[in-house]
Amino acid sequence: MRKDFLWGGATSANQYEGGYQEKGRGLSSMDIVPTGGNRQKMIKGHINQLEIKESLHYPTHESVDFFNHYKEDIALFAEMGFTAYRMSISWSRIFPKGDEEKPNQEGLDFYESVFKECQKYKITPIVTISHFDAPLYLVETIGSWKSRKMIDYYLRYCHILFTTYKEYVTHWITFNEINMILHAPYMAAGVLVEENNEKQIKYQAAHYELVASSLATKLAKEINPNNKIGCMFAAGSAYPYSCHPEDVFEALKVDQENYFFADIQVRGKYPSYALKSFEKNGIKIEMTPEDLENIANHTVDFISFSYYNSRCIARKESDAELTEGNLFATAKNPYLELSEWGWPIDPLGLRITLNNIYDRYQKPMIIVENGLGARDNLENEQVHDDYRIDYLSKHLKMMKAAIEEDGVDLFGYTAWSACDIVSASSGEIDKRYGFVYVDAEDNNKRIRKDSFYWYQNVIKTNGKNL
């Protein structure tokens, strides 16, 4: 492993921060999505219910209260040995409605305090600008990323971030899991869809995000030439369910859909397979020559991605039993075990995915999410999460092999998640991912899990002890 390899953990503001109405913060797109009930329909953009209802439960409103525990948490990250912390900023904490001329100073001050804590412990912040987050007012008034106006509001937000935090942050990610707009458009981008026109809406919104990403990349370089900008997508190679050529071809098409966004952000143009698919499906994207010029001229510096599982693709859904995995329905792979939530566990799939991405793009990479959601039991102030250690250990061994034996250029790894958070897919706090257990019944008390000490040793030995 390279000596300057970045080790750390990851979180997102809307799942971790809490304080959803403190110090001037406006409502976010995800603040109105409850746990249970209609959550899946809402995050997929099929329910127009843009309000908070007293009868429903919204765990993200308080979450685990990083807003008031950030010093304690970052000290714990430092104790583990983090050299990187991948986090996100709440857009509506900076611009409460999204269309203001001037930002909310209290919001800016909060993140400056967070970055100063990171600086104190020599932790490199890797900051996602939009992580399943948009001001709710922009969803209500212009339809969020359905509108080209969103680009200007996003760039105003970016300009404030790049200038205000110039001395603290040089690693930026424009959008989290940008390909999730195709699977959960409201969660990913605040986009509501109509079923008879769903693909058109998703791909038009995606185009505006891609243009915004390119212009943000340009802006970041102008403000600070040291800035490094990355794309981020939900990765996981697609396997054919069998060696039947039609299964193989269907898996190829799924991989193409998965790589669509990175193909554009890294290579600087729409791939031919996508243009043909638009033509076949009657999708007409409103794009200008200037859009395409910006996409071509302002590509990303690095590729970041999440990896939780591989996917298995059958030519007919009836050919195989289905299971879930990071909001992707997939054929059940008979050779893999499943997590408590039905997600396939495939460590070798991470090595395969790393090779596939690096072979495709030849750009520096970082894994910014990888972890296991599970119900942890707190007993006598201890959490014995051997299952998480086992999961992470096996994945890190495959990551190490991809670097040392296959030659992929990977500069960092941030596990999901640094601390317990609210699950994006289920909205539950009980689906825990972190190295630090948060006891909501005891004033959000932080408790180190067994995996905390295991990961501490992994970092200390730079990946020798896995």
From TrEMBL:
<dbReference type="InterPro" id="IPR001360">
    <property type="entry name" value="Glyco_hydro_1"/>
</dbReference>
<dbReference type="InterPro" id="IPR033132">
    <property type="entry name" value="GH_1_N_CS"/>
</dbReference>
<dbReference type="GO" id="GO:0005829">
    <property type="term" value="C:cytosol"/>
</dbReference>
<comment type="similarity">
    <text>Belongs to the glycosyl hydrolase 1 family.</text>
</comment>
<dbReference type="GO" id="GO:0016052">
    <property type="term" value="P:carbohydrate catabolic process"/>
</dbReference>
<feature type="active site" description="Nucleophile">
    <location>
        <position position="369"/>
    </location>
</feature>
<dbReference type="GO" id="GO:0008422">
    <property type="term" value="F:beta-glucosidase activity"/>
</dbReference>
<protein>
    <submittedName>
        <fullName>6-phospho-beta-glucosidase</fullName>
    </submittedName>
</protein>
<dbReference type="InterPro" id="IPR017853">
    <property type="entry name" value="GH"/>
</dbReference>
<keyword id="KW-0326">Glycosidase</keyword>
<dbReference type="InterPro" id="IPR018120">
    <property type="entry name" value="Glyco_hydro_1_AS"/>
</dbReference>
<dbReference type="Pfam" id="PF00232">
    <property type="entry name" value="Glyco_hydro_1"/>
</dbReference>
<keyword id="KW-0378">Hydrolase</keyword>
